[in-house]
Amino acid sequence: MFLINLQGKESIYEQIRQQIEKFIRSGILKPDDRLPSVRALADDLGINPNTVMKAYQELEKNGYIYTVNKKGVFVSKDLETDKARNRKDALHMLKTLKEEGFQKEDLLDLLEEIYGKEGTC
Prior knowledge:
Oligomer: single chain
Number of domains: 2
CATH class of the largest domain: Mainly Alpha
CATH superfamily of the largest domain: Winged helix-like DNA-binding domain superfamily/Winged helix DNA-binding domain
Number of helices: 5
Order of helices and strands: HEHHEEHH
CATH topology of the largest domain: Arc Repressor Mutant, subunit A
Largest sheet: 3 strands, antiparallel
Helix content: 40-55%
């Protein structure tokens, strides 16, 4: 399941974290799916359990997973999709631009610049 490059530039825990995030975002791992225990994953990968623990702690801090004592580690239910998160970020940015004095017409001009005039790509 995991492809870890022991000689890579990125730390092993970061590779694990990124791969789990990718599996969750792509739907390979679904809400409430159980992840391998820290010890099991460390044994499978031949790495120190503290490395897996660090990746899991980061994932939990960022809301991707949750831990149930004596039950295991699971994928969170309440994850925002990338599209929802991007929409929220764009809305925040647009509100900030409005507060800084941008008019609706200015923003529409910028959108036309990015997407082209209506009817063209």
